[in-house]
Structures are given as C-alpha cells and as structure tokens.
Design goal:
Blueprint lengths: L4 E3 L9 E6 L4 E7 L34 E7 L11 E5 L1 E2 L8 E6 L8 E11 L7 E13 L6 H4 L6 H7 L23 H17 L15 H23 L3 E3 L2 E3 L5 H32 L4
Parallel strand pairs: 1-3, 2-9
Antiparallel strand pairs: 3-7, 4-5, 4-8, 6-7, 8-9, 10-11
Helix pairs in contact: 3-4, 4-5
Length: 299
Amino acid sequence: MIAPIEVSPASVPGQIKLIRITQSARKQVVLLLTDDFGAPVNLSEEVQNPPAGVPQWDTRNADGANVEIRLRVQAANQGELYGNYSMTVKGTILDQTTSRGFVSFQLENKDTCSLGIFEASIQRYVPNGNEEGWLVDTWPVLLAIEPSAMGLLSISGHGPLLIPEIRLALLDVDNQSDGAPFSNLLDDTEFTDLDIVFAQRRVVQMWNETPPNVRKYTTQNFPYRYWWLEGTCAHLLKMSAARYRRNRLAYQAGGVSIDDQSKAAEYEEAGQRKLSEFMEWMRQEKYRININACWSIGI
C-alpha cells in the first residue's frame, strides 16, 4: 500500500511537500492533488475555461481525455544551486469513481540517477493542438534524490547528506531507538524531513552568494561534508528558535504554570554559535581558494 502525498496548489500558503527517492531506484509515487480549499481535484473533468480561441465556460466530463498530469523538474533553468538536471514524467490519473485527485507517477532509474535537491512541480495540461498543451494548474513540490550504495556517484558527485545522519547529529530521533532515550520530554522527532532538506539548501546558497564568488557548488556536488552538516544543523536550530518564538504562550491552569515553548533563546544561541563557526570556516576556505587561484600554487 503506497501512502499518497497530499499536495496543495501554488496559490495556497501551506507547507510545500517533499518527495524522497533513493538514487537509481525505480519508484512509484502517488499524489493527492487538492484545490485552493483543500478539496481533492476532480481530474476527470474538463478544465473550466481552458485557454482557447472560444472559451468554454461550462464543465463537461471527459473521462480525463483532455487532461494530462506531468511531474517536471527543470533544474537546468534554476541557477547554480541545482546543477544540470531535468526530468518530465507523465502521470496516470487513478480511478475517480470513488475518490478524486489521485495521480500516480512511475519513476525509472534513469529519472533518479542524479543526486540532489530539486524544485519540481506537478502540472496539469489541456490539449491545444500542439505537443506541449496549455498549462492550467501547478502544484509545487521538492524532490530529494538521496545517495545509495547502489547509485552511480560519478554521475553527479556526492549528493546531499543523509537525513538520518543529520538527525543523529542533533539527537533528533525517537525513543524507539536502541539504547538510552534521546528525549525525556518528547516521544517524537523535532524536525520534519522538509525542514532538513530546506536547511541543506540554505548552506549551499550561503556558500554561493557570499563573496568572493569562487567555486560555486550545487546540492549535487558540495564537497565539504563536515561543514555542510554543521551549517545544516545551525540553520535547523535557528528555524526551531523561530518556531518557539511563534508558538510561545505562557499560561496558568489549576495553580500550575505552563511555559513549555520558552526555548527560543537557547536554540537561537546554539544555532548562531554553529553558524558563526561555519561562516568563519567559509571565509578562510574562500580566502585559501582565492590565494591559490591567484598564485597558482597549492596551499
């Protein structure tokens, strides 16, 4: 049984969803596409008022014949953060008789051979007489293709860090793990997979956008594994600090004072300390690269 991932349209200010795939894996991905109000989209109905010479204002059941769903990654057009990678996979609209909005994508190993973290989108098209069709709806997602022992590292470099590795560095694991419990207060993890993937991207962005502009990298080939981990942890801690500030509400009930969200200062301090260490290392490393390029000697 494949659990579907519910995806909201770009117009809804909700949390973007993450698709995780192991490198070179053959994977079926099932998504539930929803509208602006959170209701599943009836993909078997003709799109209302599709772009056309004569607009169609009504809605007619076309059994999905006029609808095509695609999962598209265009990293080649997304700047230096993502590297040179693109993919377009046509989806299969699942049975709409008892439930709506479900679409399935079959990813082959040729689609998942490039490691990295990519912006992607689910796109709905209607025919317009040419091969491309009209784009009428989009649902944004993040696609993380993660390293595997069976993968081909030579294709795209080392790829992103493993999410369990980052969790272990922060002791962000549940208490079902072997040995002593990692948390005496929470029987759950603190960070989502999306949080971790986003923080990894932030580290590469910081490297690329901090002068001097030397040796720009992508999430496919950032080579400094230790410092990538440290920078990711720094951003995660600062994200948690923002979350605690947002959710803090001290109150009293039955003579007991409750203020369990008063952790922003500690998280902010820990995150800033790690981030300062990362930035100092980055400054020195960029200085070393710059000097080496200037004098053409190994330092």
